């Protein structure tokens, strides 16, 4: 029994893709699901052009926009592995949920557009992964197009992200003259646009293709070989330990659109990606293969179906096995109840979970029981997993009730939604005006929508634009240092926070007030 559980848990690989919009996340996800046989047609994951929506697009807003608001989970089988891909929403729907999803994974795949290099959203998501110290695998995409020089891209990753790189393979040409990849790990060349039978060319002991293969006539082969030699001599040495600690990222090149390099990537990923790891709790580290179900809520999606007003709490399982109808205790309240309903998320099918173990994500119907960060455990056990970190909001709005007579529902709604983690609440010092902070604009829109639909409260939002929020280490703070450009507010626990107009205002303030120690919750130590 225990062995069976350990075997199941060891087969799980749970990751998220971090990338900037348009780098190819949807395309790569689709190709991975195709390899796993989870979907039959490409185009199933994102239906924006065909008008057919993926199962993750429940919310009204999602339907109007044709985008997916919150992360969904896709599961597929490949060889002996059961893989969970947690979607991280981008574009305007970038939000705290995107960050929180990264708390529920064991590794991350970073996609970089070879023509663009590191982009803003990739950097933000990367920082969260780095904070957690999880392994990050890099896929440099769109090699079928002209992009930047691979060596330059590597240098950028190392410099901007401060992580060592180890190219697992190396491109031979690119764009119209893309011949394939030189695979350092499997010691072979994988040719682009050739039939399955002749796709792989083995390398001899000197790392060269044997005989006179036409690929050798291309100057690009020589160039790739030279660059690989340079990497062998002067590049980083591969270290599984560094990879596991999140200090080194293995780099792969490919083209998601043409499915080139995707399978090789997946197979190598599976060799090094960790199975579910122990997680810290009030009872110490909990082993993933230990008996007794437990997990934590990393995200709550409300109003998936406006007609039913249902919510779903997404739970990352951290130990044991989930069974329908099992009795659990919610650590925050000590309340015991039964988990009768659950859903499992697949790209195109919303089916009921049968077997879910550590590493898997389950969706539980929620009627207001859960908060983000809540932990549940089987039976009467009280297990509380580590608190989810607070993420630095970047966008702010002033918010008031449209109808001053309806303060009660306004207050109730705002406090519940803030507690749920939909947005962050701040107050000004004197007037106690309400200010909301979020990571992405859509969080405000969802907030307005939910205030109206769930609390019958119309709100007025006054945009304040983007600000740099910094918490303060020192306890005592003099209100007189507050100004328009460095506004002093309180968070919902009454901690003082400065909202700086821009980077310049932040630096100016630090210069003038060296005694005040500012803190960014998302800073990497
Ligand atoms: P995202 O989820 O990261 O936002 O990116 P997505 O996969 O939707 O890809 C963004 C665009 O880049 C799409 O083109 C997609 O076809 C293209 N793309 C993805 N991978 C590759 C690749 O390996 N090579 C090339 N050349 N293009 C790639 P689009 O025109 O915006 O959309 P669509 O009409 O293809 O849906």
From TrEMBL:
Its main location: cytoplasm. Keywords: Cytoplasm, GTP-binding, Nucleotide-binding, Protein biosynthesis. It is found in: Cytoplasm. One of its GO terms (molecular function) is GTPase activity. Gene3D superfamilies: P-loop containing nucleotide triphosphate hydrolases, Peptide chain release factor 3, domain III, Translation factors. GO terms for biological process: regulation of translational termination. Increases the formation of ribosomal termination complexes and stimulates activities of RF-1 and RF-2. It binds guanine nucleotides and has strong preference for UGA stop codons. It may interact directly with the ribosome. The stimulation of RF-1 and RF-2 is significantly reduced by GTP and GDP, but not by GMP. NCBIfam families: prfC (TIGR00503), PRK00741.1 (NF001964), small_GTP (TIGR00231). Belongs to the TRAFAC class translation factor GTPase superfamily. Classic translation factor GTPase family. PrfC subfamily. This is Peptide chain release factor 3. The gene is prfC.
